[in-house]
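From the pipeline queue, job 12 of 40. The input is one protein chain; the requested action is below.

Action: predict structure.
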Amino acid sequence: MATDQFPAYFQAMETAEVIVVDNVESDPRTAEFSAPYLTPNGIFSMIDAPIVVDGVLVGVISFEHIGKPRSWAPDEQLFATALGDLVALAMETHRMAYHDVLTKLPNRLLFMDRIEHALKRRYESATPVAVMFLDLDKFKIVNDTLGHEVADHLLQALAYRLTECARAQDTVARMGGDGFVILREVPSAAAGGPPRILIAKPGLDGHSNGAEQLAVAARDAGLEVIYVGIRSTPEQIARAARDEDVDLIGLSILSGSHLLLVGDRKSTRLNSSPTDLARM
């Protein structure tokens, strides 16, 4: 059912209360889909109990009566309400077991499950798997000087940024503290070829040790390395990444080495802008 086709029904569902309908043809909440669906199937009375998890409508439990319109007894309405609440509780408990409470990201347990499945697919289809570990430099200083509330907001903002940069099929997880990890299965753009990574060292620092170490590690992992070199500007890096159609970007800067995902929205991310390159 599409929300734009049946607005009255879904507006009623947003109240998170059970919809009790004795006659689907006369009730305004169900009249809009009684002719195309309910009446042809002989359904004239129904109870719909919403399943709400974390304030979001995720499903509906529907009790449909085939035959003449009827009234629903109070205990039937209570049963529908209780069943909807029970299913919502079970779903919320399951979600909390596999997701971080603060950032809503998958937690370590769910990440380990997904990487196990990714590795199985790796052996079955030879699809390379990339795992990137990230943390926040000097996060303890933020926590100690500005307080836990600000630190929590920072972690939530980082989780949002990482999720925005990743593809829908990637897994962005919080491992605990300021530690995050991204799991990405990287199919090559060229049939049968390895995923491609662009290695660069932006800025004026002429030392290339970090970039070279990144390149060596990437080759050891089976990636095809496109090496831009040192003293590269953000514009040069963005242009090279776009022209070479790479899957990953590896940057060596003074604070350490960084891996950037090149997502499906490559054309909008790599627009030769230093600001956009920093946000990738």
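Job complete. The mean pLDDT is 79.
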